[in-house]
Amino acid sequence: MEKKSKKMLYYMLIPMLFIMLFIYYEFKNIPTVIFLKENQSIKQNIFLKVNGNKKSKKNASINLLGIVPVGSVSIKPVKSDILLYPGGQPVGVKLNTKGVLVVALSDITTIKGKAASPAAVAGIQIGDNILKMNETIIKDAEQTKNIVNESNGQNITVLIERKGQKLKKIIKPVKSMDGDNYKIGLWIRDSTAGIGTLTFYDKNSKMFAALGHPIMDIDTGTILNINSGQVVSSSIVSVKKGIKGNPGELKGIFVNEDSVLGNIYKNTECGIFGKGKDELQNNSVAPMKIGLRNEIKEGPAKILTTIDKDGVKAYDIRIDKLLAQDSPGPKSMVIKVTDKELLEKTGGIVQGMSGSPIIQNGKIVGAVTHVLVNKPDVGYGIYIEWMLSDANLLMK
C-alpha cells in the first residue's frame, strides 16, 4: 500500500513540475515595458491581456489565468501612423570622436631611462575621451600632440569624459629621447570609418537609422563617443563568404565621398542615427508601417539587403525565437537565413549586412545585427521599436 502511494505521488508530482516550469517560462518572457498602438489589443500568453485606447492606463496587471494578479507591466503609447521607407542599401559611415579617444597607454624612454606613462600616473584610463587641454577644446590627435610638445614639461590640465562623467586630471609631460619631444605616454584616436546598411528613412522628419548595433572602438571595446559623423554613398565591390568559425564580409568603397547624404548625431546600443537628404530614400519600395514586438510572429520573414551591383533585393529568412528584453539592445530575436541564393553567395549573414531591415507581413519589424560565428546562417536582429525610440520617432 505504501509503495502504491509513493508511486501515485510520483505520477502527480511529475506533471505538476512540468506545469510549474511552463508557468515560470511564460512569466519570465513577459517584458516589463510594452509599446502599444492606439486601439491595439494584445494577449501575452496566459498572464497578460492589454487593450489600447485613448484612456489606457500607464500600467497593466499581469494575472495568472486571468484571475490572480502577480505583477504589472508599463504601457507606452506609440504613434499608430508611422510610415518609413525601408533601407537595405549600403552606406559609408565616417565618425569623429568627441575630443580624442585614449586607446592605449605606454611608458616613455628618457635620458634617465624608462618612465611610467605620465597620463597613467595622472589617472587617465583607456576608453577616456580627452575634451580639453589647458582650456583648449581638443578636436584631433595632431592638435593634442602639439599642445603636449609645446608645454616644455609644464603641467597640463586635462578635462576628460569617462562613462558620461567629466573629470579633471593634471599631467606632467616628460622629454623623450625619441626626437627630443615631450610626451605623456598615450595612444589616441580621433576618427573611424566603415561600411554598413541603412535600416530606414523617415521622409517627414528626415531621420534615418542604420546598423542596429553600436559602433565600437576596436581597441577599447567601448561604444565610440562621437562628436559628429556623416553617411555617404557606398558601393559593394565583393563578398567574402562566411564559413563556420570565420564570418564573411561585404567589401565596399565610398562613392562621391564629398557629397554627404546625412549627418550622424547619435551612436547608441541600437545603431547610428541622424538627419539626411531624400537621396537616402529607397525608391524601389513603397513606405511601410512598423510592426511592434507584440505583432511579430516566429516564422517566415524577409530581409532587404545589398550584396552586389544589382542593388537592394529581398531574401527569405525565418524568425526562430523572440527574446524578452526590458532595455534596448541589438539582440532581440534569433533569425536564420533560408534563401538559397543568399546562402550560396554569402553563406548567410556577413559583416556589413548589419542594419538590413527585417520585413514580416508587409511591416518593418527589425534589423539584422549580428551573426553567430560558428553558424553563419544564424544571427540576431533588433526590434524596430528600439531603433525608433532612439530616433525619437516612436512615442506619442
From TrEMBL:
Swiss-Prot/TrEMBL keywords: Hydrolase, Membrane, Transmembrane, Transmembrane helix
The UniProt transmembrane annotation reads 9-27
> For this protein, what is the EC number?
3.4.21.116
Query: Could you say which residues form the signal peptide?
Result: none
Q: Which residues form the Peptidase S55 domain?
A: 165-396
GO MF term set: hydrolase activity
Task: Show the coiled coil region(s).
Answer: none
The keyword Transferase is annotated on this UniProt entry: no
Q: Which SMART domains match?
A: PDZ (SM00228)
Q: What is this protein called?
A: Stage IV sporulation protein B
Q: Which organism is it from?
A: Clostridium algifaecis
Q: The organism's lineage? A: Bacteria, Bacillati, Bacillota, Clostridia, Eubacteriales
